[in-house]
Design brief:
heterotrimer, A alpha+beta (563), B mainly alpha (315), C mainly alpha (304), A: 563 residues, alpha+beta, six-stranded mixed beta sheet, five-stranded mixed beta sheet, 17 helices, 31% helix, globular, C: 304 residues, mainly alpha, 12 helices, 0% strand
């Protein structure tokens, strides 16, 4: 137990020292002070010496948005993750930095069967890991099978479902990996069999889940293999270290097959969560490149866009609003059309997003390969009111109150979702006389609500995985996990399926066009608001090798400081 | 003369001493004025013409995006063209409400807990105070954050909110108040217990008891005034602490949620646009200036009360 | 003996902390593995949940967690899949701790002399000015101080870096922004303590012995006056060592403060529970140190 004096200490107790305690108190005080400051000094010096970095400055410092969730190519999902992993690993094809098209990577060439379902890849013969061991066809097969292995729990495994039996293997219906349509014919040849012709399959081969990863290291270190030292890499750079919220440091991999064209020796990639930090670091010269569109402070975009070091370009991403069509009154297409036509999208791009974004009336962004979208509905409040009246809510009378769901953007980013929500709330109120509550939730709760159709209207966005209309339109097929609106239309489904089985590029485009017309004119389970604009900033007089491309992906190999 | 002096009650003595404290008195007037403006502003909006109300309604969007302070918008406007003056005043409602209710809540729990422990003494005292000790060594920040992050989501998914969405913001504020009050009563409990404990055995209490004073006279004359001083002082001092805490949580995005605003969210909006290229200074200066001025006034007031009641610092 | 008992008592306390944070987190809707892109087949989601035992009842997951903890294993972060919780703490804690110790040094270095000075000049204009500054420091939130410091010292005058944590120059502004509030607090406590001490019988006795006023303040009053500061310093240091979300976020410092908020929003259970345990351990430890310092400083306090 504690004595009374002891227990009273923090609360009460007038501090009246006992008489005669002077000498001892003084000595004790000195003692405590010595111990205390001694400890403090030693801890401080220890930490400070530990934190001082004696390291070479990087050739290029890049600010990259959120901290990667993972750099394991099979597991990573975010674009920020992918932009880092692309430095370390490579697939059979790789991205052309100038236009994001697939060009030969680890495979030197390939043959495609006339029906478009069998690909035969020929590997380069000089391939080695950064640790010196050779890379062979078996490694490719291992990497792909690893992505599909149920125990790997790869979220993007679905991108390899184009392979025969891949889905069955991934879902556990087949246990034998040799039945999956990827085989090593000899050390330098990989044969891939597909379920049906897939025009964008070469793009699939340069996506992270098809990167070639080091088998021996993974088997030795398990889940934490990325922390292994040395970490064998198949790409242009090796990992020096990765400290969370600090940086990823890369150094050139001299054994990479195309090392002659690797332009930088050391690259630092910093995760930065807030646009203000990013612009501060950049303006202060501590970073060379900022390439995440969330790292642009919207308040000053009008000034920034005038500067030569700010670059904007078309980008495969759409910001849109989802309806839960299983709930009244959003089950009525006229209501959805009315809400769409009452939105002044121009005001939103001019006042809120401000990056020179294009207003969207259709879902698939302009500039998508081999495809032109049909036009959707424009801003037409008069027709909107008419449609709403036809649906039984003249002047918004009787329209049930509903909520608009959006996710809080973490940290100090520019809160774009909240701003858009506030604008929509006002526009629908002013034009249609309907009232909506805002409903902000955390990311995880937001996804949960979308998936379980536990919302009325919600914000959403979609960024293309590859340059093809299917990456957008495929989402809204009945039962697709990304549908998340409860919307189902047999005609739409069959058009999308027909398009995907079609080898002729032009016919395929027409089928997709018919499908999208249903989506954005007749039915409207989603309202496209605007197309994302790719924005990055770097001084072209100091940095070269970054190109504007529709996927907004930038292979690290070509980036260099101008000497 | 001595007769007169003897009849001045402790409360009156404290009051006279308080009036001599210039900063505290000025602070009190400032707070009263602020409160009056905050309370009256909504009525002004209602009474004035439609156009005035339209331009000054806190949630009304307009084309005047980022307008600097001027004749029409006295504090300027924000990204949606909303009037900042109105937003600061409506934000004050939330901030002050959260502060006052949170402080009162912590006060009620703290006084009850401390008084029971102090009066009962012995085993009960030991147990109650040991619980306080335990709670003291829990990481409160973490629990407040987790509580707001998780229970906040639970509220949103609850059927109550699903049926009447307008309840949500109210419940959110209630949760915020509960969380803040629940973590700040510990100090109060310790102070009150110490006070009660020492009062019970204080010389003048025992003396008046020995002189035959009835218990209720002792309580009314000595214990209540003494505790009253502590309580009032503590209230004034914990108010700014809770308001500051709320602004911190709002900055993290855990406080009140849009379209509601508090000083914290307004400040967060203001500082989040500090950058090397262009700064809308009014978005920082006005919410920040009023927040800091209010906190300063509350602190001066608290200090003045403490000096007036002659209470030793037990922070 | 008392301290040994306190240490043993800490173990159930830590259990309470871990259980509270673990179960509170599980109340939130959604889970750490929800993702923006729906998996191509429900089986994929099932694979992920199976890998992290997310389908088992919560109490079972907690027991599993405790079992790992008994072996010194804090588990794997659900958000940073390649890192274990111990790795994350190991990387971030030294940085947060350095920042915290520097801020602590700043708070003490500024607060103690200011408190002493204002007390010594009680009632004069120096007292008013100093006390006003101390109150002002307590009233301005850190998330306002930090951007303003950056604006003035980094952007306008170009004297110091705007962020990151690499050279000693990077370690100037963040500790100031973090420590300013505490400096004000310490100054106020110190001034208060000094004024109380001067009135105490002990100092009156010393004054009667004819010691000069300055010597009196320096040699005798300070020792008593510092007691409230000491009891405040313990929890304060625990606070500072675990880092500050706001300061680390604004200055882009790779400490652990940032994870505290992120992990609760991402429902990264293992990381959050690990961090709360760390914080609780520090807090308990610091309170022990404070009590220990009391027994040495103040002969009236004794623990059985």
């Amino acid at each position: 137990m504690v004595t009374e004096a002891g227990r009273q200490r923090p609360g009460a107790g007038s501090h009246r020292p006992a008489a005669g305690g002077q000498g001892t108190v003084q000595a004790r005080f000195a003692q405590v002070a010595r111990i205390f400051f001694g400890c403090l000094l030693s801890i401080a010096s220890l930490f400070i010496s530990g934190c001082m970095r004696q390291e070479a400055p990087a050739d290029i410092t890049i600010l990259n948005g959120a901290e990667p969730q993972s750099l394991d190519p099979a597991l990573l999902t975010g674009q920020a993750d992918m932009r880092v992993a692309i430095g370390m690993f490579e697939g059979l094809t790789r991205l052309d930095p100038t236009n994001a098209q697939a060009i030969p990577g680890l495979a030197e060439s390939w043959d495609i069967s006339p029906d478009g379902t069998v690909y035969t890849f020929h590997l380069r013969t000089n391939l080695v890991w950064s640790t010196g061991e050779p890379i062979r066809a078996d490694d490719v097969v291992y990497s792909w099978i690893r992505t599909l292995e149920p125990a790997t729990a790869a979220e993007y495994a679905g991108q390899l479902y184009y392979l025969t039996n891949a889905e069955a293997f991934n879902t556990g219906r087949i246990k034998d990996p040799s039945q999956v349509g990827v085989h090593a014919l000899d050390p330098f040849t990989v044969r891939v069999e597909l379920n049906h012709p897939t025009p964008f399959f070469l793009d699939i081969c340069d996506m992270p889940m098809s990167y070639v990863v080091p088998r021996a290291t993974i088997e030795k270190y398990g889940d934490h293999w990325l922390m292994a030292k040395p970490l064998p890499s198949s790409g242009p750079f090796e990992l020096v270290y990765w400290r969370l919220n600090d940086k990823v440091r890369f150094k050139k991999n001299p054994l990479y097959w195309d090392a002659a064209n690797t332009k930088s020796e050391i690259i630092d990639i910093l995760p930065v969560g807030s646009a203000n930090v990013a612009i501060n670091l950049y303006e202060h010269g501590e970073a060379d490149i900022v390439w995440d569109k969330d790292l642009i402070p919207a308040e000053i975009l009008d000034v920034l866009l005038q500067r030569p070091d700010f670059h904007t370009f078309n980008y495969l991403g759409t910001y849109f609003v989802r309806f839960n069509v299983t709930r009244k009154p959003f089950d009525d297409p006229r209501v959805r059309q009315a809400l769409a036509m009452a939105i002044d999208k121009k005001r939103i791009v001019e006042r809120i997003s401000k990056g020179g974004e294009e207003v969207a009336t259709h879902l698939v962004p302009d500039g998508t390969a081999d495809y032109t979208s049909p036009d959707g509905w424009g801003y037409d409040p008069v027709l909107a009111r008419k449609l709403l009246a036809e649906a039984g809510y003249p002047g918004g009378k009787g329209f049930p109150p509903f909520t608009y769901l959006y996710n809080a953007s973490a940290g100090g980013s520019s809160k774009i979702h909240e701003k858009v929500a506030i604008e929509l709330q006002q526009m629908w109120h002013d034009q249609l006389g309907i009232n909506m509550e805002l409903h902000q939730v955390e990311w995880t709760a937001y996804l949960d609500a979308l998936t379980s159709l536990n919302y009325d209207v919600a914000r959403s966005s979609w960024v293309g995985d590859y340059d093809d209309a299917n990456t957008f339109l495929g989402c809204f097929v009945t039962g697709d996990g990304n549908n998340r609106t409860g919307w189902s239309n047999p005609q739409y489904d069959s058009l999308v399926h027909q398009a995907n089985a079609e080898v002729n590029v032009k016919k395929r485009g027409q089928l997709f066009q018919q499908a999208e017309t249903i989506l954005v004119r007749d039915q409207l389970p989603v309202i496209p608001l605007y197309f994302y604009e790719g924005i990055n900033y770097f001084d072209t007089n100091k940095v070269q090798g970054i190109y504007e491309n529709i996927l907004d992906d930038h292979p690290l190999q070509s980036i260099a400081k101008v000497k | 003369m001595s007769d007169l002096h003897g009849h001045i009650s402790p409360a009156r003595r404290a009051w006279l001493r308080f009036l001599k404290n210039r900063p505290a008195v000025i602070s009190a007037w400032f707070l009263i004025a602020l409160l009056a403006v905050v309370v009256l502003w909504p009525f002004v909006l209602k009474m004035s013409g439609a156009r005035f109300a339209q331009t000054h309604a806190p949630d009304q969007l307009s084309d005047a995006q980022f307008a600097p302070p001027g004749a029409q918008h006295w504090f300027g406007t924000d990204v949606h063209g909303r009037d900042l003056f109105s937003r600061v005043l409506f934000g004050a409602q939330i901030s002050l409400l959260v502060g006052v209710v949170g402080a009162l809540l912590s006060l009620v729990i703290g006084v009850l807990w401390g008084a029971i422990a102090g009066y009962a003494g012995g085993r009960i005292d030991a147990i109650l105070m040991r619980i306080v000790d335990v709670l003291y060594s829990l990481p409160t920040i973490i629990f407040v954050i987790v509580l707001l992050a998780t229970l906040g989501e639970v509220i949103k998914e609850s059927s109550l909110v699903k049926n009447s969405p307008s309840l949500e913001s109210g419940l959110r504020v209630a949760l915020l108040v509960a969380a803040l009050g629940a973590v700040s009563w510990l100090t109060m409990a310790r102070i009150v217990r110490g006070q009660v404990l020492s009062l019970r055995s204080r010389a003048f209490v025992e003396a008046s008891r020995a002189l035959g004073a009835k218990p209720h006279w002792v309580i009314a004359r000595h214990i209540i005034p003494n505790i009253f001083g502590v309580v009032i002082t503590y209230l004034a001092l914990s108010l700014p602490a809770i308001i500051l805490y709320e602004s911190f949580l709002s900055f993290l995005g855990l406080g009140v949620e849009p379209p509601m605003a508090s000083w914290g969210t307004l400040m967060a909006e203001g500082v989040s646009q500090i950058n090397p290229i262009r700064i809308y200074w009014w978005l920082i200066l006005f919410p920040g200036g009023i927040l800091v001025a209010t906190l300063l006034a509350l602190n001066f007031l608290g200090d003045g009360l403490r000096d007036a009641w002659d209470i030793k610092n037990r922070d | 003996m008392y301290f040994v008992r306190r240490l043993i008592f800490a173990i159930p306390l830590l259990l309470v902390v871990s259980a509270l944070s673990f179960f509170l987190m599980h109340l939130a809707p959604g889970g750490p593995f929800d993702s923006e892109r729906a998996p191509a087949s429900p089986q994929i989601e099932h694979n992920i949940r199976a890998k992290y035992h997310a389908d088992e009842p919560v109490w079972k997951q907690y027991l599993e967690y405790l079992r790992g903890l008994a072996h010194g294993d804090f588990g794997v972060s659900y958000k940073y899949l390649d890192h274990s919780v111990s790795d994350i703490i190991e990387q971030g804690l030294p940085i947060s701790a350095t920042l915290g110790i520097l801020a602590f040094g700043f708070a003490m270095g500024l607060g103690l002399p200011l408190g002493f000075f204002t007390a010594a000049r009680r009632g004069r204009w120096e007292d008013y000015a100093g006390s006003f500054l101390a109150i002002l420091a307590v009233c301005i939130p850190g998330f306002v101080v930090a951007p303003i410091l950056i604006l003035v010292f980094s952007i306008k005058w170009q004297l110091l870096p705007v962020g990151l944590w690499e050279t000693p120059w990077h370690m100037v502004l963040p500790p100031i922004a973090l420590g300013l509030f505490f400096a004000g607090k310490v100054a106020r406590l110190m001034r208060e303590g000094m004024l109380n001490a001067v009135q105490s019988e002990f100092v009156t006795a010393a004054r009667a012995k004819g010691l000069s006023e300055n010597k009196l303040l320096l040699k005798h009053a300070v020792r008593i006056a510092i007691l409230p500061v000491v009891s405040f310093a313990g929890p304060m240091l625990a606070d500072l060592l675990t880092g500050s979300f706001v300061i680390e976020n604004i200055f882009q410092i790779p400490g652990i403060g940032v994870f505290l908020v992120n992990s609760s929003q991402n429902l990264d259970y293992p990381l959050l529970v690990g961090l709360s345990l760390l914080y609780a351990i520090l807090l308990i430890g610091m309170n022990l140190v404070v009590d220990f310092a009391y027994t040495l400083l103040d002969p009236r306090v004794k623990y059985e």
